[in-house]
Amino acid sequence: MIPIHKLEHVVALAERRSYRRAAESLHLTQPALSRSIQSLERALGVRLFDRGRGGVEPTAVGALLVTRARDILSAVGDLEHEIDLVRGLGAGNLEVSLAPYPSALSGQRAVARLLTEHPEIQCRVRVAGFSPIADDVAEGRSEIGVADLGVAMARGLAAEPLVRRPLFFVARKGHPLARAGGRSLEQLLGFPWAGIRAPSRMVEHFPADLGRAGRWDRATGEFVPALELDAVSEFLVLARDSDILVVAGLAMAERELAAGRLAVVPFTPPWLHLDYGFISRPNRTLSPATLRFMEIVRGIEAELDEREQALQATYL
Question: Which terminus of the chain has fewer CB atoms gathered within 10 Å of its CB, N or C?
Fold first, then answer.
């Protein structure tokens, strides 16, 4: 019988094509991983991997084993999930992938509240772009994601809308575009933008020439800002200390706005909004820990909606 951990080693090596990278992903030393693969090859009496110019490659038998190993590991994961459901919330796991905006606004706070209520729950939280999050959920690395729903629905994932909220450009106090009076998109394109990638559906709102704002990714159709960041916490520092423009919710920038270090650019097109929700694999029963996390997120987002409306009355 092949031990489960050796199947994990085989899959990791096949995916990363490098003993070093595979060992790092498994939190092993490279020699330990090499010994594990060699012992499995001796037990089976066949060679599983060859070294080539492009890295480590599975042999024909190795490729067969990798395919079957993925199926087995997926089945084991499903079994562990079902056992968690039976054991209940107190002994469960939370595996969630968050896009940068929902992570900063409600996701991390919801995780903190969940762990305060149930400190015995084991959590794994990943912050990534909306396409990687859809991959995480589809391939079972995360039970749920909180991200833009467009990509998720195209992948056949289950989606629950959560937020549709206006966004705004903010800039340093004294920025040429932060004065009173309306601004045009062409004026904003004259300055570099910082933020996360935007979905390809945004293309209909932009001219062909994006100026200094950013570029279009030809492979995905996504808008890539001049300064691409996944850490939302860094956005406001950039805006405060340069002429960079940042797209943010007012609650995210509340402290900087109140202190007079940032100002809202008077540009409020109807297409500039935050739109995300929960994504999960269809027909999958979610764990009690995940359901409680979702409940907490909904409550935080409702609080944020009220706060955003109050801030809009103050700064717009």
Answer: N
Domain holding 50, by residue range, is 4-85
Q: How far apart are CA 105 and CA 147, in angstroms?
A: 12
Q: Model confidence over 183-204: pLDDT tens digits?
A: 899 999 999 999 888 877 788 8
pLDDT of res. 172: 93
Q: How many CB atoms lie within 10 A of CB 137?
A: 26
**Cα–Cα distance for residue pair 75/290, rounded to 1 Å:** 20
Residue ending a domain, among 237, 252, 271, is 271
Q: Is 6 exposed, middle or buried (0-12, 13-18, 19+ CB in 10 A)?
A: middle
Residue with tokens 């956005």: 235
Q: DSSP alpha helices (H): ranges in 45-177?
A: 60-87, 100-102, 108-117, 130-138, 149-154
| pLDDT score at 293 | 95
Confidence of residue 89 (pLDDT cuts 50, 70, 90): low
Query: Cα separation of 65 and 12, whole Å?
Result: 12
CA distance 239 to 109: 24
Q: Which residue's entry shows tokens 């509240």? A: 113
Residues 62 and 12 sit within 8 Å (Cβ to Cβ): no
The CATH number of the domain holding residue 193 is: 3.40.190.10
Instruction: Tell me how far the alpha carbon of residue 211 is from its chain's centroid.
Output: 28
How sure is the predictor about 258, in pLDDT bands with cuts at 50, 70 and 90? very high
The DSSP call for residue 203 is G
- Rounded to 5°, the CA angle 77-108-308 comes to 135
Q: Same domain, yes or no, for 54 and 71?
A: yes
Distance separating alpha carbons of residues 74 and 67, to the nearest angstrom:
11
Strand arrangement, sheet containing 93-98: 122-127, 93-98, 144-147, 273-280, 158-166
Q: Which residue has the tokens 């650019």?
A: 265
* Residue 62: other Cβ atoms inside 10 A: 23
CA angle 115, 152, 64 (to 5 degrees): 90
